[in-house]
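Contributing: when you submit paired examples, paste them exactly as shown. First protein:
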Amino acid sequence: MAIEPGERLYTGAIASAQFAETYNAATLKIEAFKAAGLPVPENLLNGRHNLLVAFATS
């Protein structure tokens, strides 16, 4: 699921263009691993999660 710039996140924070671009790039990498039938590296999953939490709570 992509995040659009200006979208309101679960904490009420508004997604910036830079945040949305970075989050969506990580999501595309995760989806590429899944499409190839490969396990997604934990650091990629954790990194995307940490990015979201850090932005949403700042």
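Second protein:
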Amino acid sequence: MDLSKIKSSPITHTLFVLKFIVSGLIANTLEGLLCLLLWPFNKELFRHIHFFLSQIISLDFVFLLEWWSCTDIYFYVDKKDYDKYYGKENGIIVLNHFYEIDWLTMWCISDRVGIMGNCKAFAKKSLMYIPIIGWSWWFSEYLFLSRDLVKDKQTIEVNLKKLFEYQNPIWLLLYAEGTRFTPEKHEASMKFARSKGFPELKHHLLPRTKGFSLGLPNIRHNLPAVYNFQVAYKGDLKPSMFNLLNSQKLEVHVYMERISIEQIPKEVKDCDNWMNNLFVKKDKLMDSFIKTGDWFKESGVEPLEKFKSKRKYSSLVNFIFWAVVVLVPLAKLLCNFMIFGKFIFLGVLLFIFCGLYMIFKWWISVSEIKASSSEDGKLKNKSK
């Protein structure tokens, strides 16, 4: 039996989407009920329960990377720091935004260190209205921004402080570049950098530092460290959702560095400079990796230990459980329609399946187009 053909089949993809929609809507319903019943009286209890509920949705994507495509992830990290701190303390994770699925790699990392249910992020305000994922992010207390510093100031200063008062550790993901890298955005970003005397970068956009610098004073007392994560992929295969669904195996390499909060300046201007210098370092790492396949060969950065991170079974168990809950009753229903000759109902179901598949294909194509063409004008307008 050729499993690769089964995994790349439109029928398999449609069933996967159907399972995701049903399990996701069930999770959203439970999140909504618990929010109404628990949030007004016991926020911490709601957060403890939601830690697991949110993973019903996010682990589906982790499953695609870890078990469906069998992608390998390699960490480059100080092993003592990794064992002592990772997943055990509050942290802001500063990431590059070069690839279509770098966010998914970050979800896998957070799952492997046991903090996925408390992994938060800054996100565009419009994303909170997207069914299933956006709704779950809202219940997870993601920080939704309108990309207007005046409007976002309260979210950054007040809500960020509340987030870091969790009883359990959280990770806040920060894509300081603000949007995914494309040649057009890079050209506009570097033009702006030259006009302001900022360092020019080869593989990153100029980081947007104000949100980080304004928010940091409000959470320093609850923030032991900032983490510098740099994600890259080896090989000619494009790291995309489409290739993951077709079970195309990737090879991910992640540079991971813990930076104590004491090393980060307190003054806003100095903090801005610190972030810009961090991206110079990230750029040197990326340049070395692209040229040599090694983070350290030409970057001048001190080498770190490399090890292959082991997959966790949580995403596999989650997928199997919900596949049984959703797809077994569906299979029985289809068999009954065929046995009793209810072909009209069977046709309606098949029509729904085809619709789901077309929507899914459209979503994948839009996601890939955005990687190269979306929001090109936004950065130019910001620069002006």
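If you have annotations for the second protein, write them as plain sentences, like these:
The radius of gyration is 22 Å.
The chain has one domain: 3-318+361-383.
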